[in-house]
């Protein structure tokens, strides 16, 4: 069976500067990882590498069995679901929710040259409904609330039934109610797609859904620690990556800081 993500001696550089050094990191089917660390620790660069947009300077990264630089990674456009702020500016103003989600099947944000089939549109509608947006499919994306937009992007990421899901700070900017709503939807996704490997990038422990299994903690472009979430995430580890003392609590399988 193909391992969804395998990094070995991975070194990433941007503008000539090394931004990440990751000797080994493996994500297996059904594992749900949180990548946690402060601003500037290399999280964004890792996301770009997972999407095939930043090639290794040294070492190797394998994504669903494909190696950027060696293999054609165009199939990853539909095999990897992605939700993050980087794509939102690329959406045309009149684009509706249904149109946005349907573009996932052609791997672009504008269905100018390829158009989704009726089956794909039907699948898009089902995914919108799963994220509580079924009644808003005709509404322009830019007229949605921020929380609704994030759920629309998650519907887009999941409509083609990807083999890997990458979430780049999906709760950023949300108010507490919208954040909790999104976390609850992510938890429900676990029941729908228990074998789907997920990578959630964040710097807030409160955004980690209860069902997440593993953690990769980054600081200064290096791995501080990694492994099973319950054994990796503790107050000492947080002090190591954020540089100050926190009291880490867990209540009803959710994490919080004091």
Helices and strands in order:
Elements lengths: L4 E10 L2 E11 L4 E5 L6 H8 L7 E6 L12 H4 E5 L12 H6 L15 H13 L15 H13 L5 E5 L7 H17 L5 E5 L11 E6 L2 E7 H4 L2 H8 L5 E4 L2 E4 L1
Parallel strand pairs: 3-7, 3-8, 5-6, 6-7
Antiparallel strand pairs: 1-2, 1-4, 8-9, 10-11
Helix pairs in contact: 4-5, 5-6
Folded structure, characterized:
The protein is α/β, with parallel strands linked by helices and 258 residues long. The protein has a domain at 87-162. Helices cover 28% and strands 26% of the residues. It has eight helices and eleven strands. A six-stranded mixed β-sheet has the order 5-6-7-3-8-9, sandwiched between helices. It has a three-stranded antiparallel β-sheet with strand order 2-1-4, covered by helices on one side. Strands 10-11 form a two-stranded antiparallel ribbon. Helix 4 (118-130) crosses helix 5. The longest helix has 17 residues, at 176-192. The protein is globular. The relative contact order is 0.17.
